[in-house]
Amino acid sequence: MEYTSPTFDVNLNPDGFVVDLGSLYAFLAKLTDRRHARGVRYALVTVLVFIVLAKLAGEDRLAGIAEWVQHRKDALAEALHLAKPRAPHRTTYSRILGRVVDTEEFEQVVREFFASQPQAGCSILIALDGKTLRGTIPAGQTQGLHLLAAFLPGEGWVIVQVEVDGKENEIKAAPRVLKCLDLRDKIVTGDAMLAQRDLSVQIVEGGGDYVWTVKDNQSQLRQDIATLFEPEKCVKGFGPATKDFRTANTIEKGHGRLERRTLTVSSELKGYLDWPYAEQVFKLERHFERMKDGKITHEVVYGITSLTAHEASAQRLLEIARTHWQIENGLHYRRDETLREDWCHLRLGHTAE
Predict the structure, then answer these.
(1) Among 57, 92, 113, where does a domain finish?
(2) Judgement on whether residues 182 and 237 belong to the same structural domain of the protein
(3) Residue 138 has pLDDT above 90, yes or no
(4) Domain of 285?
(5) By CB neighbour count within 10 A (0-12 exposed, 13-18 middle, 19+ buried), where does 55 fall?
(6) Residues 28 and 87 in one domain
């Protein structure tokens, strides 16, 4: 005989309690509990709330989460109106995260929760970037759990995140991310790996625009852009041809160094490049001077965008390029240093994800 799993705990106080329909609790309660009702002691939503609270309190391991809940089971039972103050064992958390929670459904529910917040999702820029959880890399191997995220730098939250399968890379996973997004009037940014023709077409035909950096994985494209910005060699008696170059600069001092950025943009390769929907190309120069010893570092990066000169000036493109790398501090750093993601050693099912 099949049983239907209860929405709330089997030991829920019969008087019940009121839940804000816009709360995280209410959204997590939508998740499908794939367990059979027989033997279920804790509702899925209750276990997930316990994990979230313990995680926010600084617990990074399942054993720590279980202990944190055990010490506060009376207060938690009162807050959640549970009939009995009980705390799950760490193996219960592991089993539920690894085998009960459907990651795609979980991502969808959490995305809906954040999207329901005031002014959420209004940002124009979407940064794509991937990250490997180093603690999940097996001994002797180089590949662990790798996640590709679509991040809103202006708001600080991830719209979509997918696991990059061990047999694929970010290029193969990116279309799955983009399919989950409303790309209308959005600007998608990514590093050189994601500078791909198919992704560019998918973004523009979805109503958005792209800004990619370009490196040697697109060698001909990079060479064409670099050639445009090289000093022109002129025959004696003739001057260089007129170019439509536009330039923007920023100078900042902080963290013990002086940083100068210069971006030069041009529309002259439109129609020449073998690249879909290309409108402008740019050259970004970064000049770093370390204050304590005067050491100088100089970097040059090339890029391409579907944004027209009317839609994005040199100053605007410089801002977009700078904002993209906020994903390092705004997402990756926080996940590593605050949430200690790289210290994750969970292996059961998709627990780590």
Answers:
(1) 113
(2) no
(3) no
(4) 216-315
(5) middle
(6) yes
Is residue 132 within 8 Å of 148, Cβ to Cβ? no
Specify burial of residue 122 (Cβ count, 10 A radius: 0-12, 13-18, 19+).
Answer: exposed
pLDDT at 279 over 70: yes
pLDDT at 2: 42
Cα(291)–Cα(239) distance, integer angstroms:
40
- Give the mean pLDDT of 49-68: 93
Task: Measure the CA–CA gap between 49 and 351, rounded to whole angstroms.
Answer: 16
| Per-residue pLDDT tens over the stretch 214-267 | 999 999 999 999 999 998 777 676 667 778 999 999 998 887 889 899 999 999
Question: In this structure, are 192 and 234 located in the same domain?
Answer: no
Q: Is the pLDDT of residue 166 over 80?
A: no
Number of domains in the chain: 3
Q: Which of 93, 113, 133 marks a domain boundary?
A: 113
Task: For 290-305, write each residue's pLDDT tens digit.
Answer: 888 888 899 999 999 9
* Residue 74, helix vs strand vs coil: helix
Give domain status of residue 13, yes or no.
no
> Does residue 33 have a pLDDT over 80?
yes
**141 inside domain:** yes
In a domain, 264, yes or no: yes
> Per the domain annotation, does 17 fall within a domain?
no
Report the CATH number at residue 261.
Answer: 2.20.130.10
Q: Are residues 189 and 275 in the same domain?
A: no
CB 145 within 8 A of CB 163: yes
Three-class secondary structure assignment of 198-242: HHHHHHHHCCCEEEEEECHHHHHHHHHHHHHHCCCCCCCCCCCCC
Kindly state the percentage of the chain with pLDDT values over 70: 93
Instruction: Supply the DSSP symbol for 319.
Output: H
Question: Residue 269: phi, psi to the nearest 5?
Answer: -90, 0
Amino acid at 300: V
Quick check: pTM over 0.90? Answer: no
